[in-house]
Amino acid sequence: MAHRKESVVLLIHCKDRRGIVARVSGFIHDFGGNILDSDHHTDEETNEFLMRMEFAAEGLQIPPDEIAAAFAPVAKTFDMRYEVRPSSRRMRVAMLVSKQDHCLADLLQRHKRDELHIDIPVIISNHDACAGWAELFKIPFTVYPVTKETKSQQEQQILALLKEHRIELVVMTRYMQILSGAFLSQVGCPVINIHHSFLPAFIGANPYRQAYDRGVKIIGATAHYATEDLDEGPIIEQDVMRVGHRDTVDDLVRKGRDLEEIVLARAVRRHVERRVLVYGRKTVVFD
Question: Are the C-beta atoms of 150 and 177 separated by less than 8 Å?
Answer without folding.
Answer: no
